[in-house]
């Protein structure tokens, strides 16, 4: 049986694994190889155990929810008067791509905004440098937390936030960029060449 296993390094116990590839990705690891027995321990997402012995493989479809998938700790800003890219994240390759499903995934995109020196600041969600979201405007007394569900997202897409200020000497600051959603497993035929692995 051939398997792909994603898990927290300290919480993964595997026996009889002939490993082809081991990739360390922050707190996660990916093992690709032939496995006859596995014993997931604490911290391992057993939904990430994916076997293709029967010539099918499972990918994820994202479904918007309050479950946190990714958080960017950075702080981003602009003083420009035209839409400017502030932050972006690459959707991992274990999600459905456009060849797998015409519907794609839906993710909940969250961010927080702060303004200074201008009456209004604006942001909008883009995918692959194309505007897809509703323009968010923040002025005096407006909410600074923004959430929007974005559909039609595929593996390899870039989810981005662009922003601008209304006037000089205005300044826009964005932080706490988050992607939220649930994993829905979808079983598909194994393709000839498997995708390279990327994690959030």
What features would you highlight for this structure?
2 domains; single chain; five-stranded antiparallel beta sheet; mainly beta; Jelly Rolls; four-stranded antiparallel beta sheet; 0% helix; elongated; 200 residues; disordered N terminus
Task: Kindly summarize this structure in a few lines.
This protein has 200 residues and is mostly beta strands. 0% of the residues lie in helices and 63% in strands. The strands form 3 sheets. Strands 6, 8, 9, 10 and 12 form a 5-stranded antiparallel sheet that branches. It has a 4-stranded antiparallel sheet with strand order 2-3-1-4, with no helix packed on it. The protein has a 4-stranded antiparallel sheet with strand order 5-13-7-11, with no helix packed on it.
Q: How much helix, percentage-wise, in residues? A: under 10%
Rough shape? Answer: elongated
Mean pLDDT: 75
SS-based class: mainly beta
Residue ranges: pLDDT <50 for 5 or more in a row? Answer: 1-54
Total of domains = 2
Question: CATH class of the largest domain, anyone?
Answer: Mainly Beta
Gap between N and C termini:
26 Å
Largest sheet: 5 strands, antiparallel
Radius of gyration: 20 Å
**How would you spell out the order of helices and strands?**
EEEEEEEEEEEEE
Assign the CATH topology of the largest domain.
Jelly Rolls
Number of strands: 13
CATH architectural designation of the largest domain: Sandwich
Instruction: Kindly estimate the percentage of residues that lie in beta strands according to DSSP.
Output: over 45%
- How many alpha or pi helices? 0
């Amino acid at each position: 049986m051939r398997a792909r296993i994603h898990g927290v390094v300290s919480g993964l116990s595997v026996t009889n694994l002939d490993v082809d590839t081991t990739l360390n990705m922050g707190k996660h690891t990916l093992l690709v190889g032939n496995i006859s027995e596995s014993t997931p321990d604490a911290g391992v997402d057993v939904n990430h155990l994916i076997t293709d012995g029967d010539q099918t493989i499972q990918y994820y479809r994202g479904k918007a929810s309050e479950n946190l998938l990714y958080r960017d700790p950075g702080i981003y800003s602009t003083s420009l008067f035209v839409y400017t890219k502030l932050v972006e994240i690459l959707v991992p390759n274990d999600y459905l791509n456009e060849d797998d499903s015409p519907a794609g995934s839906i993710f909940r995109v969250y961010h927080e905004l702060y303004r200074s020196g201008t009456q209004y600041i604006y942001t909008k969600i883009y995918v692959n440098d194309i505007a897809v979201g509703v323009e968010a405007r923040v002025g005096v007394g407006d909410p600074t937390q923004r959430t929007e569900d974005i559909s039609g997202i595929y593996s390899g897409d870039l989810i981005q936030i662009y922003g601008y200020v209304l006037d000089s000497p205005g300044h826009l600051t964005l932080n706490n960029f988050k992607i939220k959603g649930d994993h829905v497993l979808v079983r598909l035929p194994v393709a000839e060449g498997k995708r390279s692995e990327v994690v959030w």
